[in-house]
Amino acid sequence: MNVLAACTFDLKFTYVLPGWEGSASDSRILDNALSREDNLNAPQGKFYLADAGYMLRSTFLTPYRSTRYHLKEYSRHPPENPKELFNLRHSSLRNAIERAFGVLKNRFPILAEMSRYDVETVSEIVLACCILHNFLVDFDPDEEIIAQVDRDLMNNESDHGLANGAIARGEDGRRGEILRDSIAAQMWNDYITRH
Question: Ranges for the DDE Tnp4 domain (predicted)?
C-alpha cells in the first residue's frame, strides 16, 4: 500500500493519506490529495519538499534532474554549482519524512504485518499509528529509536530522492522551476560568499 504523507522537521505527521494500491504513481496520489475535501495544501508563501517521483509544482519542489542528490555523494566532494547545492540541502531536509516513517515503523511493528487486513482496516491502523506517533514525539520520544533510524538511513540511503523524476508541466510547473532556480541561486550566492 502507498501512503502519501507530509511531516514537520520535528518528525510529526501533518497530513496522511493511506489506502492507495502499491502500483499507484506518486503523482496520481498527489493529484488526489490536492483535490480532496481534506486536501493537502501548502500555506500561502510556503512549499513542500517532494521526491523526484512527483511533478515539480510551485508548492512541491523536487530536486534537479541528472544532478548529484544523496548526502553521501557530498561527503567527499562539496557542491560545485547552484543545482548541486540545492539538491544537497533538499536531500538533507527531505530526510525528515524518511526519519518520521522509520520511527513510526520501529515504534509500531504491526505496520510490517498488514497483509492479513483489508484496505480500509489498514488505512485506519496507519492513521491511528500516525496519531499516536505524533503524541509520543512530544511526550515520550524514544531517542534510541531515532538514533537507530538515523544510522539505518545513513547506511541504506533510499532512492526516493533520486533526481530523475517527472518534468514540470504547465504554468504551475514553470512557476515551480522559477522558484527552485531562485532559491538555488540565492543559496549558491550565500554559499560562495562564506566559503
Answer: 1-134
47: left (phi over 0), alpha (psi -120 to 50) or beta: beta
Cβ contacts of 180 within 8 Å, gap of 6 or more? 56, 61, 62, 64, 86
Cα–Cα distance for residue pair 53/169, rounded to 1 Å: 14
Beta bridge partners of 61: 49
Closest by CA to 70, choosing from 153, 184, 181, 167, is 153
Q: Are 60 and 48 in contact (CB under 8 A)?
A: yes
Torsion region of 72: left, alpha or beta (phi above 0 gives left; psi -120 to 50 gives alpha): alpha
Between CA 15 and CA 58 the distance in angstroms is: 19
Rounded Cα–Cα distance for residues 70 and 58 (Å): 23
DSSP bridge partners of 2: 20
The H or E element that residue 128 is part of is helix 119-139
Percent of the chain with pLDDT over 70: 93
**Chain segment 110-152, per-residue pLDDT in tens:** 999 888 899 999 999 999 999 999 999 999 888 899 889 988 8
Query: Amino acid identity of 107?
Result: R
Q: Report the distance separating Cα 135 and Cα 156, nearest Å.
A: 28
- What is the spatial distance between Cα 112 and Cα 97, in angstroms, rounded to a whole number? 18
